[in-house]
């Protein structure tokens, strides 16, 4: 009886220890792709949240770093063409994405990229379309309104847009594709 | 014999090169000094923006007092100083190509010029009227680019 109790206690303890020793890395982090996507919108909108020093230095490094934290080291970030480049612009790796984020941060103010609410039966929701990949990682996409003001001439625009994310298992962006419907852009008077 | 000739040729080449270096050196020094001066001058003219803005505020105040007290000679000098301060303000914003700030600085400079011109024409009332229009340029720029922090200090918005 004593032996059986001792053995049972030992087994229970072993079980508890082995449970405790399962590293959290083995378990997929409890990240929700829609929450990750929302965080991307928050940090993108924060890219205008910086100051010019009294000595005339543009101090945007902190917000750019915060934005880049969302990306995996070897991430792809694809945006549409601009006046500086025709065709799709694919940025690979954090250094290239930093260049884009830095330029974006210095070019626009009053950033308000937002996912519009859909409401039915008195239930408002910001729709994010999410998927779980069989190889691990997650995907999310949504359409949104990109509202921004040019920093130089202070003209404000609204552009319908869409974004597609592929996240790795750690919740970092592996791939992002941003579509901006420039043809449907409207200037805010 | 051949070795001696080669040696003397080499020596002459070295001497020529040394002579050329000696000729070039003063020119190089002048060029470097000029480049240094060019690079140093704008930096020397630039001062922290908060210091500049405080200078603008006290100069505007001085100008109003001068105009109200009828001291037109003093007011003329102050208006000239104000014009230079707005040139400095414009220079701060120029690298950022921020239209509204540049427009405000240019507009305010234009007002300062108008005040000086009115004083020169001995028209105190016209100078006062022009000075009254200065505030709108200050307000426009401050609304867009000045943000007050919780500790009551200010920072510059892009």
Dominant shape of chain A: globular
* Oligomer class: heterodimer
CATH topology-level fold name of the largest domain in chain B: Four Helix Bundle (Hemerythrin (Met), subunit A)
- Biggest sheet statistics of chain A: 8 strands, mixed
Spans of chain B of at least 5 consecutive residues whose pLDDT stays below 50 are 37-44
What proportion of the residues of chain B is helical, as a percent range? over 70%
Give the end-to-end Cα distance of chain A, rounded to a whole number of Å.
86 Å
Task: Give, in order, the helices and strands of chain B.
Answer: HHHHHHEE
SSE run of chain A = HHEEHEEHEEEEEEEE
Distance separating the two termini of chain B: 77 Å
CATH architecture of the largest domain in chain B: Up-down Bundle
Major sheet description of chain B = 2 strands, antiparallel
What integer value in Å does the Rg of chain A equal? 23 Å
Please state the second-level CATH architecture of chain A.
Roll
Query: Structural class per helix/strand content of chain A?
Result: alpha+beta
User: In total, how many beta strands of chain B?
Assistant: 2
Largest interface: A-B, 16 and 18 residues
Commentary on this structure:
The complex is a heterodimer of chains A (189) and B (158). Chain A is of the alpha+beta class and 189 residues long. Chain A has a single domain (32-188), classed as Nuclear Transport Factor 2, Chain: A (Roll), CATH 3.10.450.50. Chain A is 29% helix and 37% strand. Chain A is built from four helices and twelve strands. Chain A has helices at residues 2-21, 33-45, 61-68, 94-107; strands spanning 51-52, 58-59, 71-79, 89-92, 108-114, 118-120, 123-125, 129-132, 138-150, 156-167, 173-180, 186-188. In chain A, strands 3, 4, 5, 8, 9, 10, 11 and 12 form an eight-stranded mixed beta sheet that branches. In chain A, strands 1-2 form a two-stranded antiparallel sheet. A two-stranded antiparallel sheet of chain A has the order 6-7. In chain A, a hairpin with a 2-residue loop joins strand 6 (118-120) and strand 7. In chain A, helix 3 packs across helix 4 (94-107). Chain A is globular, with a radius of gyration of 23 Å. Chain A starts with a helix and ends with a strand. By secondary structure, chain B is mainly α. Chain B folds into two domains: 1-45; 48-156, Four Helix Bundle (Hemerythrin (Met), subunit A) (Up-down Bundle), CATH 1.20.120.10. Helix content of chain B is 82%, strand content 4%. Chain B has six helices and two strands, in the order ααααααββ. Chain B has helices at 2-45, 49-69, 72-93, 99-120, 124-132, 135-145, and strands spanning 146-148, 154-156. Chain B has a two-stranded antiparallel sheet with strand order 1-2. Chain B is elongated. Residues 37-44 of chain B have low confidence and may be disordered. Chains A and B meet through strand 1 of A and helix 2 of B.
